[in-house]
Amino acid sequence: MRSLIFLLAMLAATQADAASLRTMTTLHSMNVYLRDLFDDAGKNADMLLGTGPDPGGRIVVEATQLNAIARQFDVAWRSVSPADRAVLEWPGRPLKREEAIEAVRTAITAAGAPDDWDIDIPGFSPPIVPFEGVSAPTVSQLDYDSNTGRFTAMLSITGEAMNPINVRIGGRVEAMAEAPVASTRLLPETVLRADDVHTARVRISQIRTQVATSVDQIIGMELKRPVPAGQPLRLADLTKPPLVQRGATVQVQLEVAGLSVNGQAVAMDAGAEGERIRVQNRNSRALLTAQVIGPGLVRVTPDELPTATTRYDRRTFGP
């Protein structure tokens, strides 16, 4: 009986000293230690076994390899099934595009880029960096052409407890300028108000054609074509809103030889302030060229009277 009690006590002590397998371990660096595979790994728990997966990756250690590691480092563990395995995972995240651009910005500024500019990195595939800790991207081997704005460079990401990551990138530096842009999608024949536009930084490539450079050039003007939200407004797409509509009755003013004559006519064209349009007298059917001076109001000067007209009287264009 005493022998049985002693054996049971020895077995309990052995089990108490046995290590247990860690089936899933989250790593915090590129290194794998013995303690990452086994709990209670013994005196060699802090032994470095090697490098683990890249950030965002995982590796699987199968039963055969686990048994070999346990024997090599005197770990009190043996697999009980071929299905035993340990999964080691290092969480990662994609490097933010803004982080890469800021690194490029620092390098290109030192290379003499314009004062106001932006960076485009088309097709940028962000490398995976550790989820924890600080990853510091820097740029080296910069090749920048100030004439075209194009560049290539080596983007290097370093950080605590990680291998450096090197990625070749390329892109273009775009000069920027401030210009009024549409706040929302604007439709043709919209008479622009202050809340229809706002000033924003836009790429010079977007404004190769002549565009409005101040809000004062826009307010009160009418659009000829639709303008998407965020787009600059081209001067060619702006026109003064008509103060006279075609077919409308207009008041006509004529001053000649100290005589002021007012009458009515029919507008044959639409016209904005300052524009010249044709008007027709209701009675005589005479056609005159007149200048729009206000809503529904035009002015005729003597040199604009029909050549067949020899008398400046009300029959020319009067009511």
Characterization of this structure:
Helix content is 13%, strand content 39%. By secondary structure, the protein is mostly beta strands. The protein folds into 4 domains: 2-90, eubacterium ventriosum atcc fold, CATH 2.60.480; 94-174, no CATH class; 176-239, Type Iii Antifreeze Protein Isoform Hplc 12, CATH 3.90.1210; 243-304, SH3 type barrels (Roll), CATH 2.30.30. The strands form 8 sheets. Strands 9, 11, 12, 13 and 14 form a 5-stranded antiparallel sheet that branches. A 5-stranded mixed barrel has the order 18-19-21-22-23. Strand 18 (249-256) and strand 19 form a beta hairpin. The protein starts with a helix and ends in a 19-residue tail after the last strand.
Summarize the structure.
This protein is mostly beta strands and 319 residues long. It has 4 domains: 2-90, eubacterium ventriosum atcc fold, CATH 2.60.480; 94-174, no CATH class; 176-239, Antifreeze-like/N-acetylneuraminic acid synthase C-terminal domain (Type Iii Antifreeze Protein Isoform Hplc 12), CATH 3.90.1210.10; 243-304, SH3 type barrels.
